[in-house]
Amino acid sequence: MERTQLFDLMGELKLYGMKDAFDEIMATAVKRQHEPQRIIGDLLSAEISEKQARSIKYQLTIAKLPLAKDIHDFEFEGTPINETLVNDLAGGGFIAQQRNVVLVGGTGTGKTHLAIAIARSCIRSSARGRFYNVVDLVNRLETESRNGRQGRLADQLTRLDFIVLDELGYLPFAQSGGQLLFHLVSRLYERTSIIVTTNLAFGEWPSVFGDAKMTTALLDRLTHHCDIVETGNDSWRFKSRADDHTSTRARPVSATPASSDGANASRSKRKTRGSLLDADTGSRSNAD
Fold first, then answer.
1. What digits encode the pLDDT tens for the residues 252-267?
2. What is the rounded CA–CA span in Å between residue 5 and residue 280?
């Protein structure tokens, strides 16, 4: 059978990886006198690799990540960030364990960069995810509710491996929106892993959701199985300014949860890597 005929058949069967690698594999096979079984195996391997690459590209597209950021692009030196923990999260093990991730720190300390980098790494390992700015997500949930379609987005997200909720606390939203977000997190609990970036200590989350009891319940679900990455308070954006040689600090933030309605006592029994979750809220006296 002629080469062009083989290519036509591969095209009809959508064996694009095999088609692209055909000439190289055949040239190597002739040179090294590979047996037919080896040639077929190499062609099939090329097809599998191409399909995997195409799937990853598609998943990266539908994840709606705003930027292309990777772990190796991040400068850990001079930051309080636990690099070992970040690399571990990038391996995707937290998804298999249905754990969540909270990245907390001042503005400009790399929280979104790390969240995107972890997400991209997980997608390359065949995970499916979606990125949302928190305010945009709340607006979408409110629109869904007004149109009588409440719960449809939650149904879609429970079929994903993880979602990223970026910039929690940067902009306020209505209490009704906070309730919808609470219900979404409740639906995703122990189903879909959640990666959150925030500039707020846990004790300040009620200021966003407007309901202390609901916030405590949300934190209870979010931090039940959770890894916390503290990025500190020194903004690298300010550090990188060539004409600014002074130290510029953002408002101090630490990963200290609220303790109300006895939730602190229940969470104190949990072991969470990256931060202590059972500290008293009194330690936030310097947070403002």
1. 455 544 444 444 434 4
2. 73
